[in-house]
Amino acid sequence: MQLQELEQRMHDFVQSKGWYDVNSAKQQTPRNLAASLVIEAAEVLEHFQWRSDTADQDALAGELADVALYLLQLASISGIDLEQAILTKLEENQKREWPAP
Q1: Which of 14, 36, 48, 54 has the fewest other C-beta atoms within 10 Å?
Q2: 29-101, what's its fold?
């Protein structure tokens, strides 16, 4: 599945829940999505708290999917082509000098 297809399915889901409605209790603003993204990222970290790897791969997969969905939605409603942004960043990083540890 292509990134654009995932984006459309994400938008369809959010729309079906009424979260794009102006009076929604779960308004999908860039600020709210950024906060949700960070919260979900913290939930990923919980899987590694006090251990070097996760005990529950399925739960970790679910948290990673949450992070990806919030990231995809935030980029989309902010007018950012996430695929192009990633390609540009990879190109910039390729040219960057990384200090030795």
Answers
A1: 48
A2: Helix Hairpins (1.10.287)
* DSSP code per residue over the chain: --HHHHHHHHHHHHHHHTTTSTT-TT---HHHHHHHHHHHHHHHHHTTTTSSS-S-HHHHHHHHHHHHHHHHHHHHHTT--HHHHHHHHHHHHHHS-----
Q: How confident is the model at residue 8 (pLDDT cuts 50, 70, 90)?
A: very high
Question: Do 70 and 41 touch, CB atoms closer than 8 A?
Answer: no
For the chain, the structural domain boundaries read 29-101
Here the tokens at position 34 are: 């950024």
Q: Could you tell me which of 14, 90, 43, 97 has the C-alpha nearest to residue 82? A: 90
